[in-house]
Amino acid sequence: MVETELPGQGVVFWPVGTGDSTTIVLGGNLVMQVDLRDMKAADEDDAVVAAVIDRLEETLPQPDGKTPYLAVFALTHADSDHCCGFGDLLESSILIGEIWATPRLWRELSEDKPMCEDAQRFQDEVQRRVDATLKAIKDSKEVPSGDRVRIIGYDEDRKLHSYAELPDEYFTFPGDVITKVDGEDVADRFEAFVHAPFKDHCAGDRNDTSLALQVQLKADDGTVGSLLFLGDLAYPIIKMIFENGEAADNADRVEWDVLLSPHHCSKKAMYADGEDGEEELKQDLLDELQAHASPDARVIASSRPFREKDEKGNNPPHLLAREAYESITDYPVLCTGEYPCKEEPRPVVFALEAGLGLELVDIADLENKSQVLYAAGGGRRLLAALGTTRFPATAEAGLPHQRGTDAARAGVQQARGDKAEPAVQIGFGAA
């Protein structure tokens, strides 16, 4: 039910209930996974959540002709709704070239804090890679793909842990830009700007140590699509990210075309206690989000369907958060549990198109292409010349007039004809 192919460059938000599983396609043979939630429920006949690992095995590139290759796995933080199934991923046929990890789990281990089994598997794998890297350096050998690791963030007790022995090149801190993926320089197509975790929050709640990134995807003609990932951060730290960006003259690093709403569309992103101790809307953050959003910006809620109303004690998603996001954007929030409908959710896919930016792929295009690929012999033959459109086949009511990239699209279609294939290929090779 929840199958799809990967775009040539772009992003896939998988329906996984209230949790995160995001696949970013850099181009060529490079794919990045940010967080994972792969549940046993995905194997049921009437599943409304994706078997993410199975889908990755079917669709990832195979540079050696046989092994599905995931260039990077990045974990924002070790809650189970962000790392569920990581042990299964390790045991799958997929080769993970590089892992991005924060120091948080070393601290939790040293403090004997409880963690789920998959978080423990993740930490064991990161530690294995740290040991393998240190051994390779000692032996004057290059660290191979499959053993590479990057530590993102700073912890005051780092000297207590083995990762501190790594050379400086294996560390990345807030304010740094990552343009190298699994040993390959990808500055021509990808940048990841690190916003968090901050040093001051290293001993705080786990959510407060979330990895936060702005990812830029770049097409051959220079077109850029910007994605903003804020993990499970809440208002105080998100506000700090925007303030720091402007103070450091890095306002462009908080710009976004697609925002993965923090903490699965939680109201904690823009609601906090006021001076009287009562919860209040923090309009200052909404103003910041709106000021740095592109004209056609979209917000994703990676969650189960919204309830009919919010009640005290409810976990996300929150209607209050959805309403707040929709007050600063021209389009409805896209909920992975409701897209295009609750009964049959599909992955939310954006493809990067030259001259246009990140474009929402039409549901009908995804399904038609999948049927063609299935008839042709399977899912590893990825999308080529995929037609995209801003809106899914189930049309949204009350859409605004053409503007921004919609207007650009109209011009492109007028120039080449509605039925002509795009000049820029989308996909890994021929389909």
Summarize the SSE layout with pairings:
Elements: E1 10-13, E2 22-27, E3 30-34, E4 36-37, H1 52-59, E5 69-74, H2 80-83, H3 86-91, E6 95-101, H4 104-110, H5 117-138, E7 148-152, E8 171-172, E9 177-178, E10 180-181, E11 184-185, E12 190-196, E13 212-218, E14 224-229, H6 235-247, E15 256-260, E16 271-273, E17 279-281, H7 283-291, E18 293-301, H8 319-326, E19 334-335, E20 348-353, E21 357-360, H9 363-376, H10 404-416
Parallel strand pairs: 3-5, 5-6, 6-7, 7-8, 14-15, 15-18, 18-19
Antiparallel strand pairs: 1-2, 1-20, 2-3, 9-12, 10-11, 12-13, 13-14, 16-17, 20-21
Walk me through what this model shows.
With 431 residues, this protein is an alpha/beta fold. Helices cover 24% and strands 22% of the residues. It has ten helices and 21 strands. It has helices spanning 52-59, 80-83, 86-91, 104-110, 117-138, 235-247, 283-291, 319-326, 363-376, 404-416, and strands at residues 10-13, 22-27, 30-34, 36-37, 69-74, 95-101, 148-152, 171-172, 177-178, 180-181, 184-185, 190-196, 212-218, 224-229, 256-260, 271-273, 279-281, 293-301, 334-335, 348-353, 357-360. Strands 8-7-6-5-3-2-1-20-21 form a nine-stranded mixed beta sheet, with helices on one face. The chain has a seven-stranded mixed beta sheet with strand order 9-12-13-14-15-18-19, sandwiched between helices. Strands 10-11 form a two-stranded antiparallel ribbon. The longest helix is centred in the first third of the chain and has 22 residues, at 117-138. The protein is globular. The two termini are 21 Å apart.
